[in-house]
Amino acid sequence: MTRLARIPFAAEALLVLVVIAAFFAFPYNLAFVTRILIMVLFVLSIDLVLGFAGIATLGQAAMYGTGAYAAGLFAVHVTAAPLPGLVVGMVAGAILAVVSGLVLMRTKGLTLIMLTIAVAQICHEIANKARDVTGGADGLRGIRMEPVLGLFEFDFIGRTAYWYVAVVVFVVFLALRRLAAAPLGLSLRGIHESPERMTAIGAPVYRRQVLAYTLGGGIAGIAGALAAQVTQLVSLEVYSFTLSAEALIMLILGGTGRLWGAIVGTVLFMTVHHVAASADPFNWLFLIGFLVLGVVFFLPGGMIRLPAALMRLGRRS
């Protein structure tokens, strides 16, 4: 991946090829592949927050769920046009992130992790109690989306949903690639490595952490909005702790701080989950656990480092 990053637009071209190949390879399982793409976007938001800025979180589902409910309510009560709903979901996730981030970024360590979980649980309880607005435990129903750009209707097979989600993921990936190479992205990496040193040289660490958390919340809101628009249903599960925890495992599997790691880890986790759960619905987590242990012990940098590790092993042999 390091050599790939040196070639202009090589990563973007590879992502486009993968998306096109997946469309033709799984024409009758596009709904599952679309779910993978949505989770890729969600894991990318965590990578920005944790992998780049070093902000430990287990409550990213708070922004994901808020974006989902915002987009769903917008579609039900205002307009069912997908793109405006996407913007509403992004703004809702970003607003929640900046409001909570102003407090959360003043903490660190275990306190920070527990507070991020608390924010998600508070959102869950609000959505559950506001039954007249959100549908409570029954979920928000009645979402009917209009054609994308007024031209492409959502079909039963899921072709339109797949390409719609794929384009959004590609745009966000492109933006994050540019951010990673920009001064802001480099300063976030510096904050991740040593906040004290960045403070000593005059960098506004607190403000940049809040900004990174807000950007990550906006991206998570986009992912939630896509989930609401594609499935046309929003349930309380969008705020679940399990969602945040599984997304973090996906990032660890792939590798933090490298955008391709989020993609590789998500595809690996969801594929293993899909296959293993179909074979054994009760014990599939054992396989995920062994996979995580193997990555942590033998590939601390994640599966994204596997090609380099194999090359080093080949040179030694």
TrEMBL record:
It is found in: Cell membrane. GO terms for cellular component: plasma membrane. CDD domains: TM_PBP1_LivM_like (cd06581). It holds the Pfam family BPD_transp_2. InterPro entries: ABC_transp_permease, LivM-like. It is a multi-pass membrane protein. The chain crosses the membrane at residues 7-26, 32-55, 86-105, 161-180, 210-236, 248-272, 284-306. One of its GO terms (molecular function) is branched-chain amino acid transmembrane transporter activity. Keywords: Cell membrane, Membrane, Transmembrane, Transmembrane helix. It comes from the Bacteria. Its main location: membrane. This is Branched-chain amino acid ABC transporter, permease protein. It comes from Maritimibacter alkaliphilus HTCC2654.
